[in-house]
Structure formats: structure tokens, C-alpha cells
Amino acid sequence: MTGEKPMVPDRSPAPGIPAEPAALLDVDGLSVRRADGHELLRGVSFTLAPGERLGLIGESGSGKSLTALAVLGLLPAGLSAHGSVLLAGTQIVGARDRRLDRVRGRTVSAVFQEPLTALDPLMRIGRQLAGPIRRRRGLRGAALRAAVSTALDEVRLPERVAGAYPHEISGGQRQRAALAMALACEPDLLIADEPTTALDVTVQAEVLALLNGLVSGRSMALLLIGHDLAVVADVTDRLAVLERGSLVETGRAEDIVREPRHPYTRALVESAEAFEAEFDRLAP
Ligand SMILES: Nc1ncnc2c1ncn2[C@@H]1O[C@H](COP(=O)(O)OP(=O)(O)OP(=O)(O)O)[C@@H](O)[C@H]1O
């Protein structure tokens, strides 16, 4: 380990083009290590401007979820983060729980592949949604109930879902409820880690379209994690490509899809194209 930053071809605007607004998220030289010193993430650096949408892609095991967890300050026990993760100016690496609590659910919130991890099995959906809305907006009584209805409506869930327990609704409805919970905090950044992977293909498209609309309607920044390049590129402005714990390419989504530079990215694009071609061949 030399400590040198890996070469990452970045297609940022050339000098003379107006500078981007200050970063909402600035990840600089982030590494994640096991207790035995083995590095699972190596010197990962990227930024996310307010309202910008960045896709993080890579094969299974490339380190996408660890990146998300490190940004949230939620790495599992036994793993440690090194380097810098500045979220709205707050240093996440090495931060104590009190500082992290202030940032989580206010500056940033997240949805994961399995919505049941975000939902309390013993509490009706409406009450679970009311919690963050009350904390964030200070609403009570009828105003709080109306805000819960609006939150459900925004994720296209019928009002009766408020009275249901998580096990009484479908997987797609649970992911919408988890999304409503994440949005109820009105975060500046939403991290969505494979939010549709556990869903049926038709429901996947619906939930992704919903996520896309909700994020753009609120000028919220999005870090969307996925292994399907075509799907992620469709919803994001820029892509960052992870291979075995290192970023190998970052740039505008359409440039990367049209003209991938790194051999690993090229392989991802080619396999996405092959899948599309096969899908078209089989489609009636
Ligand atoms: N708690 C842990 N302890 C030790 N190693 C871990 C731990 N969590 C993840 N890893 C390892 O870190 C690497 C990156 O894992 P990560 O979950 O970030 O991959 P990923 O790109 O999100 O994969 P997937 O698409 O399958 O979710 C993998 O090799 C994984 O085995």
C-alpha cells in the first residue's frame, strides 16, 4: 500500500466552465478496513452537488454498500473507515453518535434493498410515518394525520395502508412505505442502495420511476446504488464505477454509456447491451 491515489479519469468540466456549487457530499480518499488491516475499499473519492444524482455501479462485492454505509456512518462492527467523508460540512469519519444523529434523518436518509429493515414489524405504517414527520416539522393532531396521508399519497399508496402492519402489505408497497419514511425527514441527500432489486420486474420499474419523480420534484440529491448499469444510468446525471474496492471511472452517465474508457466499465456496458438485445429478441 503506497498511499497514492488511484488514477481516476474524471470528465469534469474544463477550466473556464462555471464551477459547480459547493459539494453537499465530499468523499475524499475513503478506505474501509477489516480489523486485520485488509482493505475492502481503497482511496475512494467523489463529490455530489446539491440536487445532483450520482449512480454508483459495480459488480457484486465491489464495495457499493460499504461506500453507502461509510457515508451514513453505519459501518458494521469490525470494519473501520479512513479518509474523509464531509456531509454538508460535517465530518462523518470518526464522528460520535450524537453528531451522526444530527446528520442522519435530516441531511441524509436512506432506503435499502430490503424494506423490512427500515420498518418496525409491530407498528402500523401510519404511526411509523408520523414519527419522522412530527420530529422534522413539529406537527401534531389533525395536521400530523393530514401530513401522513399526503406522504402516503406521494408514494402512490392508498390511505388504508396507514392502518396496516408491514406484513399485511406487498413487497412493492413496503418499499414505497420505506421511501415515504426516508422522504418524511426532508433530507438534502437520499441514498438508495439497490432499492428495487428485491422486487418483481414490473414493480421495480414503477418504484424506480416514482423515486426518480420524487427526487427531482424536491431538488434532492440522490446517490443511487445498483449493479444494473442501464437502469442506474437512466436515473442519474453522473456515474462512478467501482471495481474490487476502487473507483475506476467517473463521468457523465451518457458519456460513460456511449463511450466507456476503462476495460471494466466497457465490460459492464457490453453485458448491459447484450442483456437488452436478448430481451428484445425474446419480447413478443
Ligand atoms: N461486515 C463485513 N465484514 C467483512 N467483510 C465484509 C463485510 N461487509 C462486506 N464485506 C466485504 O466487502 C466487500 C464489499 O462488499 P459490499 O457489500 O460493499 O459489496 P456490494 O458491491 O454492495 O455487493 P452487492 O451488489 O452484492 O450488494 C465484499 O468482498 C464483502 O464480502
Automatic annotation (TrEMBL):
Keywords: ATP-binding, Cell membrane, Membrane, Nucleotide-binding, Transport. Residues 25-269 form the ABC transporter domain. GO terms for molecular function: ATP binding; ATP hydrolysis activity. InterPro entries: AAA+_ATPase, ABC_Ni/Peptide_Import, ABC_transporter-like_ATP-bd, ABC_transporter-like_CS, Oligopep_ABC_C, P-loop_NTPase. It comes from the Bacteria. One of its GO terms (cellular component) is plasma membrane. SUPFAM superfamilies: P-loop containing nucleoside triphosphate hydrolases. This is ABC-type dipeptide/oligopeptide/nickel transport system ATPase component.
